[in-house]
Amino acid sequence: MSLNSTKELKLAVLIDADNVPYSNVKGMMEEITKFGTPTTKRIYADWTKPNSNGWKAVLLEHAITPIQQYSYTVGKNSSDSALIIDAMDLLYSGKLDGFCIVSSDSDFTRLAIRLRESGMKVIGIGEKKTPNSFIVACDRFIYIEVLDGAIQKKKPKTNNNAIDAKKPVEKPTEKALHKIDAPTIELIEATIEDIEDDDGWAFLGDVGNLIVKKKPEFDPRNYGFSKLTPMLKSLTDILEIDERESDKKGIKHVYVRLRFN
């Protein structure tokens, strides 16, 4: 689902390496291309630390520029200030349409707000532990855990830890209907009511866009579905689905409305 339907967004991707596992970068970069073209890709960390060794191959593969930021104070994430300064410099360059901030740190909340105030689209990517303040400051927020190739950070308790730790996280199938919680169902119902026509029908694309505006972290993959259409089709007890022919051969427009007793 693109944040801009009229043109390809030029994006700056700024990654806080202290908050993101390098094993997730491939899926993350593939996800970002759905929203636009990453014209600037930078990652911030103290690259003199031993735990940064695993990043080298990943950065070369995806042409991400590492930015050195020394840790002057123990326990303080020094990458935050460097990322924020670079973001503002890039903003004033006038060459971008949006930013992708990759972090699970609430320290970037004010940055996201400031960028949006300047007309930038802001996509956040982080772990499910990300504070809500940062999530709602973005136009769209995506959890790393649902991306292709997401890797568990902790080894599972099995007899083959060394092997299992490298396996991707198993994602729920599209039959995992019970993962759709009541607040999400209420959000879907309210959104359909907001944009329905006189007969109660709402275009699925408009429904999805409005849901994300209301709840930036909404993503069908969080509930075990690949896309919004199969997710809503699973809610047959409360929703009706109508697939209509379009002007383009083989392309159908999907509409949805609430079932009323």
From TrEMBL:
Gene3D superfamilies: 5'-nuclease (3.40.50.1010), LOTUS domain-like (3.30.420.610). One of its GO terms (molecular function) is RNA nuclease activity. Signal peptide: none annotated. Residues 180-258 form the HTH OST-type domain. Pfam families: NYN, OST-HTH. This is NYN domain-containing protein. It comes from Flavobacterium shii. InterPro entries: LOTUS-like, NYN, OST-HTH/LOTUS_dom.
